[in-house]
Amino acid sequence: MTIKSRFQKFFSRATPPAIFLLAILLSSYYSIHQKVKTGTLIITFINTANGKPVVLRDSFYVNPFGERYNITKLKYYISNIAFTGTQKWKDLNGYYLMNAATDENKVELQLQPGKYNNMQFLLGVDSMRNCSGAQTGALDPLNDMFWTWNTGYVMFKLEGTSTASTADLKRLEYHVGGYKGENNVATKISFDLNSDHTFQINEGEATEIVIETNLDNYWRGNSDIYISEAAVCMTTGKLAKKIASNFSYLFSIKKVQRIP
Question: What does pTM read for this prediction?
Fold first, then answer.
C-alpha cells in the first residue's frame, strides 16, 4: 500500500478529533525540523583597572581610596543572558565562567535576525543551579568556584595582595557568594541599547559586543570597600552583600561592531 493510499484510508475512517491531533503533530514536526535562520553574536568581556587591561601578578593598581594592590586571580560567572527588541531571546541553559587567566573570555550565541534594544544577564549563578547537585562545564566544582552544597557557588572571586591589607601576607581575598534569601548576591545587569549601541542581527553574519569589566568600580558604587578595613571576604553575609551592591557598576558596553 502506498503512503498516499494509507493517508486516504486514515482520513476516511478518522474522527475529527483524530484529524485535528494529526494536524498538530505534523505542524510540530515541521517546526522542529525547519531550519531556524540565525546570526552569530559574540560577547567579549575585557577586564580593566586604572584605564588599562588587567594583567595578573605583574601590574599594580590603585583603588579610589589610594590603596595600592595587585591581582593574582579574577573570576566571575555570567548567566541568564537575555535580549529584547523585535525578537525576544533568552539563554536558558548558559552558564559562563570568565577568567582573567585566559585570553578567551567570550560567549558565542545564535540569535534570530532582528533589532535588539535591551540586554540583560546575571552576574552569578541563580538559586536553581546552586541547588542542583554536582554539575559539569563552567559549573564543575573543579573550577574552584564552589564552596559546599549548603553555601553554593562563588559568584565573583578577586585575589591578590595589597600594602593596605592587614591580613597575613598582605593578602586580599574576596570570594563573594551566597544565594539564599537576604544573602543572595547574584546581581542582574541590564543595558539599554537604544541610545548608542542598538544592534542588528542579520542571518549568517556575526556581531560582537565588547563589555568592559572595570574594577575601579568594584571599590566604590553604592558602597565604599576599603582594603584596610576588609581585605578578606570568604563567607556569605553582610560584607558579601556590601561588595555585591557595587556589581551593577562594574559593567559597561565599550563597543558594538560587525565582524567581517
Answer: 0.85
